[in-house]
Design a protein that fits this description.
The complex is a heterodimer. Chain A is mainly α. Chain A is built from 21 helices and no strands. Classes of the chains: A mainly alpha, B mainly alpha.
Chain lengths: ~525, ~120
């Protein structure tokens, strides 16, 4: 990407203005702890669904996925498909049932079913790990994008990104984060659609011609259109598929989204909206990636970096008229700014989730046993958020330039082998006990971490002891197995008795926490 | 039910009795009739496609239209599968599953009697 331009600065200012406007409009509604964590359970299904898709479409989609598709063709698109399929898992087994029994967090739901204190402490571990990792990778992207957009030095960009996110989470909590995610998802959808449309115009709206042209320019030739260039090992690929299809259902920041809507009906409609938006964006991403291969010169492709991360920005610039034209500069600036907005929103969602595990689950519920005022809990949440953002900034500053691709594998595999088995077994198996949950989460966290460290992502020797880029194929069965064994070794009569209440409430929504009334930003509620 | 401080308590409802209600059993059976086939289809569809893609790549190269080949058509098929499956479930859940769930809720409210009845 080129350095600072007048367009870049102007568009960055515009993004800032929009963000501040949303912030001012929403933060006034932040009156109770329910507003801070769950936007008062009053977000409409379409808005929550679009925001939910925002939770998934990070800068990695706009930059990383497009790059993979440009470099490896078909496999680049195949890689993302698992996330979309994972939403069906969420729709069928997680979303609405969680909404029926929970208040603000996953642990709030499980508190009915398992011994509250040990369970909350256990669940907080993977929650904080997952959210923090997801967050700081995006903060790195934020620093890089600010550098490209307005020419700020990387460390300054990272700090500014962090401060912007902190301002959001602190003042408006989940209300502001939801709005930010919503607006960002719409921006991302629009920008990707325009670029894809534009690329298609060059080929007379004929995807067949676009694909054929891309293949004729790819060094791999016809193989560019077939699987096998990136996902070469069948075992690795299945393992990745398992991590994505079940990991989505254990992702803390996604689970938290279900508490922002009024009821189970809105929870399932949210997933419907998310599946629609994410599916469309993934399809558009494929068009953009293939378009980049067909329209960029070999020299331009070589300049997009090892992972092809600059594929989409380069294509935008070429479509606008080239790097030296005002059109090329303007469209590049718009695209980069949209990617930056994406980073901001994504991190805000991850920060509030991390913060909820520490300040709501551990501090307010375990240490204070729920004896805490709204005002005090929100204050603790704000302090925690600042600490988490600071940690994110430090990680982003110290790990810039490292290859962090393995983190995605780690995060989803961990979610699929900790939170997901616990949630599924709590809902379906009467004898599942607190001991089982602790054993399962421990097994999931330890096995994913160890397998990643021994795997090709981190191991520096020639032959990693575990030749798996994604540990899910081992860690997910281990997580379930440990849940089962733990429940047999440490059975708990009270846990077993609570099954009837938990499952009836999860299925029917009777006694579900109700909305506390937040007016919408504009217009009427749905 | 004995005093149980380790578990968060809701309204005074006999949940064990609720779990034995015929209406609740029917709700679970109805839900399974929707969820089980959908689960089989979406998991088999995705993992089946994934396995074919990584093991039989060369079989998917047949061109259908220009550069559009069997591999891309199958992938589009998975997108459509996800959308269709989501649509079918949401329709069933909003319709007959929610109706049955309302019946269960009414029974539970009735059994809990007046006073601090659940919502």
């Amino acid at each position: 990407m080129s350095g600072a331009t007048a367009f870049g600065i102007a568009i960055f200012a515009l993004i800032l203005l929009i963000s501040v406007y949303i912030l001012i409009r929403t933060s006034r509604r932040m009156t109770t702890v329910s507003h801070f964590w769950a936007a008062g359970h009053s977000v409409s299904a379409p808005r929550n669904g679009v925001a939910m898709s925002g939770d998934f479409l990070g800068a990695t989609t706009m930059l990383g996925s497009v790059g993979l598709i440009m470099l490896y063709g078909f496999d680049g698109g195949l890689y993302s498909l698992g996330w979309l399929v994972g939403f069906i898992t969420v729709l069928l087994f997680v979303g609405e049932r969680l909404r029926n029994v929970g208040r603000f967090t996953l642990s709030d739901a499980l508190a009915i079913r398992l011994r509250e204190n040990p369970m909350r402490i256990t669940i907080a571990v993977p929650t904080v790990i997952i959210s923090t990792f997801l967050m700081f990778v995006q903060v790195i992207a934020g620093g890089v994008l600010l550098n490209a957009l307005i020419g700020l030095a990387y460390p300054v960009g990272v700090v500014i990104t962090g401060l912007g996110i902190a301002a959001y989470v602190l003042s408006g909590g989940m209300i502001s984060v939801t709005w930010l995610q919503f607006v960002k998802a719409l921006i991302l959808l629009t920008v990707t659609a325009v670029v894809a449309f534009w690329a298609l115009v060059k080929f007379g709206f004929d995807p067949g011609r676009l694909l054929a042209d891309a293949a004729s320019r790819a060094p791999q030739g016809a193989a560019f259109l077939r699987p096998g260039l990136f996902l070469t090992s069948p075992v690795d690929t299945i393992s990745l598929g398992i991590a994505l299809v079940f990991g989505v259902g254990g992702l803390p920041h996604l689970l938290m989204r279900f508490f922002t809507v009024p009821d189970k009906r809105a929870a399932r409609a949210s997933v419907g909206w998310a599946v629609g938006v994410i599916g469309v964006v993934y399809l558009l991403t494929i068009v953009v990636g293939v378009g980049a291969r067909a329209l960029l010169t070999p020299a331009q492709i070589a300049a997009t970096g090892k992972g092809g991360n600059n594929a989409a920005p380069s294509l935008v610039q070429v479509l606008g008229g080239g790097p030296d034209s005002w059109g090329g500069q303007l469209f590049l600036a718009i695209f980069t700014a949209a990617a930056f907005a994406t980073v901001l929103a994504y991190v805000a969602g991850a920060v509030i989730t991390s913060s909820s595990a520490v300040s709501h689950d551990i501090f307010a519920r375990v240490m204070r046993r729920g004896r805490i005022t709204d005002r005090e809990e929100v204050r603790v949440a704000r302090i925690t958020s600042v600490v988490i953002v600071a940690v994110g900034i430090l990680l982003a500053l110290s790990l810039q330039g490292q290859n962090l691709a393995f983190l995605t594998g780690l995060v989803y595999a961990m979610a699929a082998s900790t939170n997901f088995p616990v949630l599924i077994l709590a809902m379906s198996w009467r004898r599942f006990s607190t001991g089982g949950a602790i054993a399962g989460v421990t097994a999931g966290v330890v096995s994913t971490t160890v397998l990643i460290i021994l795997g090709p992502g981190i191991w520096t020797g020639a032959h990693p002891p575990v030749d798996l880029t994604n540990p899910a194929i081992i860690s997910v069965p281990l997580g379930f197995l440990a849940c089962w064994l733990g429940s047999l070794i440490w059975p708990n009569e009270a846990d077993r008795r609570s099954f009837a209440q938990f499952s009836v409430r999860a299925a029917t929504g009777i006694d579900a926490e109700r909305a506390t009334g937040t007016e919408p930003l504009t217009g009427g509620t749905t | 039910m004995p005093e149980d401080r380790d578990h968060a308590q809701a309204a005074p409802v006999d949940w064990d009795a609720a779990g034995r209600l015929p209406e609740y059993r029917e709700l679970r059976a109805m839900r399974n009739r929707v969820v089980v086939p959908i689960t089989v289809v979406y998991l088999a569809g995705y993992f089946g496609f994934l396995i074919v893609a990584v093991t039989a790549s060369s079989a998917l190269g047949g061109r259908v239209h220009g550069g559009l080949n069997v591999a891309y058509l199958l992938m589009c098929g998975v997108f459509v599968l996800v959308w269709v499956v989501a649509f079918i479930y949401i329709r069933a859940a909003n319709g007959r599953l929610d109706d049955q769930s309302a019946k269960v809720a009414a029974k539970i409210r009735e059994a809990a009697g007046p006073g601090e009845a659940p919502r």
